[in-house]
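Supplementary Text 2. Reproducibility record for the structural model of the 291-residue chain.

All settings were left at their defaults, and a single model was retained for analysis rather than an ensemble. We include the record here because the model underlies the residue-level annotations in Supplementary Table 4.
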Amino acid sequence: MTPAPHVLVDPAWLRERHGDVLVLDATVDRRTGPDGSAVFVGGLGLHTERRLPGAHFADLLTGFSDPAAPHPFTCPPPSRVAAYARDLGVREDSTVVVYDRLSGAWAARVWWVLRTAGITRVHVLNGGLTAWEAAGLPVTDGREPAPARGDVVDRPAREGFVDLERMKRIASGADPTPAVCALRRTEYLGDPARPRSGHIPRTGSLPYADFLGPDNTLRAERSADLARAHGVRPGDGTVLYCGGAINAAGLALALHEIGIDDVLLYDGSLTEWRADPTLPVTVGPESGNDG
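Retained model, structure tokens:
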């Protein structure tokens, strides 16, 4: 099988091609609510404070998610994905580079969502804004003029997600497909004092954060070592999940770069799973199945 083309690019690559690619900033603003929970709001304010020159803001919360869905960050249908991509100027011949200012998971989510609509000429800037600035490259503020409307169309694409019913079968053991949680290990293990904390039964732990270097970059050697240690292999169709399928998308990108390109995301992730009090959650490690 021919390896899938690499998605990650570095700042030097982007600098050399800056005038020939469409750059999208997928930054999301993560805040803390009054009860200590995470609250996500659009990252436009952060984008206009500091961004790559020429970059347009890609709103992951409303543009590349379905705002009418019961859970945040639900992937919209391909027709809606393509329509928003056209608003951002994506053309049939466009090469798109997506970045964010945190761990790269937001940018990876946009890559994954575009891929579900068959829009595949998409790269992710490894290390995002942090790596760009560390390389001594310029940033700017404000907003770019609206791009000319694109002409990209949605087309049949490979399956990208599993639904709640499939995840129930995995959790019950009726479906032997391996599944791993991309949240940090402490979140995976949960806390008996916190209702509904922990992880989906019969799923392992493979934190996306463990794949990141100190500069929030992904490196193939580290990714390969971690995948090997946790038994994630090509051909298994491993299901990835987290809180809202964002870190899971980052993990999917890390695995893609080392040739494991048949993973699927549980799009509802723990947000959907925990919302149903009849569905079990496991606190503590899985016996022999959590890496």
